[in-house]
Design a protein that fits this description.
- The chain is mainly beta.
- A hairpin with a 4-residue loop joins strand 7 (108-111) and strand 8 (116-125).
- The termini are far apart.
- It is built from three helices and twelve strands.
Length: 233
């Protein structure tokens, strides 16, 4: 099975007269460009390119990149809109108990007190001084989601791959919304004092240690022991 890739930057424009490009970062670890010399570049509807990084430096809120063989504005212009990716196995390793947002999105969330499937994580929200909040949307087909979750818990079941095969020359890259190398975070030790009401069929659940029973990223499953009434807010 092809290895998934993650997006670390998106080329926005040319920069300078010698083939440099300016890119928007999708990683919280830009210093790792010093060791990431080989990058895969892809754009929907365009062939995948292999690029060798020669130099890089920050510029305002972007990063400037100079690739081997890209030596003029004319050379650089076709790169605009390309996503720069690396194999998922090269993603920065996080400390135990710390998670990437992209790994949590798509996880099934269960309330262990009731054995109820609450729904799937669609986003993670942050607020100043507050715990991270899981945005959990109720599954349209709860029975199907329950069956899927049960299947991935079995030892012989392989987790569903969420990435396209970008290493194949004609494959499109994985989209940024699926996997980027954002900085990881840990569950908060305490819950916020109050929280906004969620829309219908959507729950905002604080990602705090005292609620979490188990987080299995491989199985895409989060088990939580939630206080009574939290899902009714």
């Amino acid at each position: 099975m092809p290895e998934p890739f993650i997006t670390i930057a998106l080329i926005r424009k040319t920069q300078g007269r010698h083939g440099e490009v300016a890119a928007q970062l999708f990683t919280d670890f830009p210093e790792r460009f010093s060791e990431r010399k080989h990058l895969v570049a892809g754009k929907p509807g365009a062939p995948t390119r292999q690029l060798e990084l020669e130099h890089f430096w920050p510029h305002k809120d972007l990063i400037v990149l100079k690739f081997a063989g890209i030596d003029s504005i004319n050379d650089a212009e076709p790169l605009i809109g390309y996503e720069l990716q690396v194999p998922a196995s090269e993603r920065t390793q996080l400390d135990e108990g710390t998670f990437y947002i992209s790994d949590l999105i798509g996880c099934s969330v269960f309330d262990v007190a009731t054995s109820r499937l609450i729904g799937l994580v669609s986003d993670v929200q942050f607020g100043t001084g507050e715990a991270p909040v899981l945005v959990v949307k109720e599954s349209v087909d709860a029975d199907a989601a329950e069956q899927r979750s049960s299947a991935v818990e079995q030892p012989d079941s392989a987790p569903e791959q969420r990435s396209s095969a970008v290493e194949q020359p004609d494959s499109a890259p994985e989209q940024r919304s699926s996997a980027v190398e954002e900085r990881g975070f840990s569950p908060a030790s305490t819950a916020p004092a109050d929280r906004a009401l969620a829309p219908a069929k959507e729950h905002l659940i604080p990602f705090v240690e005292r609620y979490i029973q188990k987080t299995d990223i491989t199985a895409k499953r989060i088990e939580m022991l939630l206080p009574e009434g939290l899902l009714d807010l």
